[in-house]
Amino acid sequence: MRKRAVVSTSEAPAAIGPYSQAMAAGGMVFCSGQVALDPATGSLIEGGVEEQTKQVLKNLAAVLKAGGASFETVVKTTIFLADMDDFAKVNAIYAEAFGESRPARATVQVSRLPLDVRVEIDAIALQNGQES
Question: What is the pLDDT of residue 46?
Answer without folding.
Answer: 93
